[in-house]
User: Which sequence fits this backbone?
């Protein structure tokens, strides 16, 4: 596995880089000390839960450390493989691309211990690999029809602290997954529509907002779906965001809200899933880094002062055990834990493995009360079909 990880750093050169920041620009610079980095660790453990927590809550510094870190926690019962990276180098789709690369490289090394990779040095990580397929008119159409929303609420917080990091994980088992999917299919709605409806109903239960006032959730969207191949040229961060808004009506049923969300999501897909917004932001980031940082800090400063930010619900996708495997190892479960949040930022990640759905929330306990987090998940699980 250690040799596999090292080869992936050559196959995708950005993985062997460090993140460099100066006043004019930011860029990736290939490292000269790769073989001295701590990118793989085998941990013999009698307390795997404590080791898992330590790994999840540790934050990588991409300017100093390896931006890809693999750890195997070995217990008497099994091995737990952890893949950790920084969001600056890959989004959820990029993670799956890396997992595929890791599995393929590992399996080829089993067949041939002398296997060498071919570096993918001509591929681009830029957003232009998406934009080049669309004319300026379509980008502007997407921008004008998918405007962002001023945050009107946020997840209930107790402070703005950034310490006391923790996470919680809940799972839906395969038999219930089938019932949720069947229920959505009957209503011509996707699984994601079902999850969003349950999330809205849970937030409405916790917040009790003003009736008939629009409340919005941000949904990260994978821009790869806008490409003919549905695949990026290499490991990259090609995530954008779209917004779904509902008015609070205590009399609305689950099915009524589901229908509203389903209609909105169909329209979002028709206008290219926030491509226009991403196109404008991409041009904004071509300015000098010092200017971009000053403007971004001013914007986020006002957001934090107001104490309101769209809750983010991200469906990271499915870990496919048929396509991604390590030799003849029997993989029994897999899930993704999203980045750590502090108020007013809040996000929940959803991932699945063999019809087992995982809901993960990483947060700071001096920003969010753990009991509120658990209550939020309780209501979601109660709202979804049993």
Assistant:
């Amino acid at each position: 596995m250690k040799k596999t990880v090292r080869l992936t750093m050559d196959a995708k050169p950005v993985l062997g880089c460090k993140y460099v920041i100066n006043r004019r620009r930011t860029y990736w610079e290939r490292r000269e000390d790769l073989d001295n980095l701590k990118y793989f660790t085998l941990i013999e453990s009698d307390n795997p839960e404590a080791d898992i927590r330590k790994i999840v809550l540790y934050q990588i510094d991409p300017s100093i450390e390896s931006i890809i870190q693999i750890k195997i926690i070995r217990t008497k019962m099994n091995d737990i493989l952890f893949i950790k990276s920084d969001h600056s180098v890959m989004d959820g789709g990029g993670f799956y691309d890396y997992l595929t690369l890791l599995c393929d490289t590992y399996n080829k090394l089993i067949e041939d211990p002398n296997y060498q990779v071919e570096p993918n040095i001509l591929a681009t990580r830029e957003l232009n690999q998406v934009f080049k397929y669309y004319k300026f008119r379509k980008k502007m159409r997407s921008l004008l029809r998918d405007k962002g929303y001023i945050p009107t609420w946020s997840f209930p917080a107790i402070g703005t602290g950034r310490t006391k990091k923790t996470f919680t994980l809940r799972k839906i088992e395969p038999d219930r997954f089938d019932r949720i999917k069947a229920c959505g299919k009957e209503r011509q709605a996707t699984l994601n529509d079902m999850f969003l409806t349950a999330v809205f109903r849970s937030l409405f239960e916790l917040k009790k907002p003003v009736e008939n006032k629009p409340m919005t959730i941000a949904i990260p969207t994978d821009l790869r779906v806008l490409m003919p191949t549905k695949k990026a040229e290499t490991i990259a961060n090609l995530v954008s965001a779209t917004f779904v808004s509902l008015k609070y009506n205590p009399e609305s049923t689950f099915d009524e809200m589901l229908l509203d969300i389903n209609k909105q999501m169909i329209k979002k897909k028709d206008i290219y899933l926030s491509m226009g917004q991403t196109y404008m932001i991409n041009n904004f980031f071509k300015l000098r880094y010092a200017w971009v940082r000053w403007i971004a800090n001013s914007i986020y400063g006002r957001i934090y002062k107001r104490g309101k930010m769209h809750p983010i619900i991200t469906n990271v996708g499915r870990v496919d055990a048929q396509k991604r495997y390590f030799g003849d190892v029997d993989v029994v479960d897999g899930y993704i834990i999203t980045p750590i949040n502090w108020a007013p930022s809040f996000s929940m990640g959803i991932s699945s493995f063999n019809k087992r759905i995982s809901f993960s929330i990483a947060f700071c306990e001096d920003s969010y009360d753990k009991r509120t987090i658990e209550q939020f998940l309780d209501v979601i699980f109660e709202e979804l079909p049993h």
